[in-house]
Amino acid sequence: MTQTKAYAAQTAGAELAPFQFQRREPRPDDVAIEIDYCGVCHSDIHTVDNDWGRTVYPLVPGHEIVGRVTAVGSDVTRFRVGDVVGVGCMVDSCRACSACEAGLEQYCSEGMTGTYNGKDRYDGSITLGGYSERILVSERFVVSIPDRLDPATAAPILCAGITTYSPLRHFGVKAGDKVGVLGMGGLGHMGVKFAKALGAEVTLFTRSEAKVAEARKQGADHVVISTDREQMKAVRERFDFLLDTIPVAHDLNPYLATLKVDGTHILVGLLEPIEPAVHAGQLVAKRRVIAGSLIGGMPETQEVLDFCAEHGISCDIEMLDIRNINQAYERMKRGDVKYRFVIDMATLE
Ligand code: NDP
Ligand code: ZN
Ligand code: ZN
After folding, report:
1. Ligand 1 binding pocket includes 184 (Cβ within 6 Å)
2. Which of 24, 138, 174, 333 has the least CB density, counted as fewest CB within 10 Å?
3. pTM reported for the whole predicted model
């Protein structure tokens, strides 16, 4: 057991505060990692606030982890001490179901084990995440950070990156397609970059006038202010795909109207019931599809890191002192982050 410093929430909606706990004993397939950087995902906020009703406290969030390997178990073959590695949203799965066999561990029929607030499959303890000094993760759920990537700006690829890359690839976005990205925070700004890198014509839908020029810098060809009815009307039946990263309930109907025949609205931001209701006529009349997507499997998580290295894609980050984590949450709730906070774990001292 190793004494480990961290930041934790003790109850729903409580501010995060310094916390210490014991990391478990290492197992033969474990990689021991000293954490250098951890991105701040909106899912961390949802979990701290118990928005999904499943949070166990104390909660140590954080699932965009980059660090250095300090030890490996006797069964580990792919990593050595000193390697720069990443850990995303999961640390285990059943490894035997058809989804796991296909490298889609996030869709494990028994449920994946989350990096935080998950239940360890061996000892039943609740997993504690990356807002901490160190972590132990089974080799299968560890990825290599390519040399060409900066470790700090690579951290958000482990969640924001893979979550936007995976559906764009799965649904077959290709050169010339018209893709709309809804919301420009951590996920949205990566969605814009990936859609662009795949050759699509990219439109950002945002509520924020202030993000218009920024979106163009990210590579968006067009920007639509989603609260402006005239602008929404002007893009009716324009898009092949919409990638929806909005983290709260919102009306899908005005967005569905912007899809062409056979267009697909991909939800990644919302895990709750859709409200207000979707008008089925919006789907039926144009053979439109509403779909969803959850992060990405381990092989694809390595693939997106390699894709970023190859295409020179990185996240735009604001480096964060962990003592300012609560202010960072407040800013994210207002949609005010350019475009991912990444905690410099050296500030945990
Ligand atoms: P951020 O807070 O970084 O960004 C969300 C963006 O959505 C904001 O910047 C804002 O963009 C827009 N937005 C916020 N509030 C509203 C609102 N009330 N109405 C319309 N738009 C709004 O969040 P993340 O990118 O980190 O996460 C987005 C969502 O994705 C979260 O719900 C998160 O839990 C989920 N998620 C899902 C995953 C999956 O596997 N499916 C994995 C990771 C995260 P703008 O100012 O441009 O309008
Ligand atoms: Zn996340
Ligand atoms: Zn499985």
Report:
1. yes
2. 174
3. 0.98
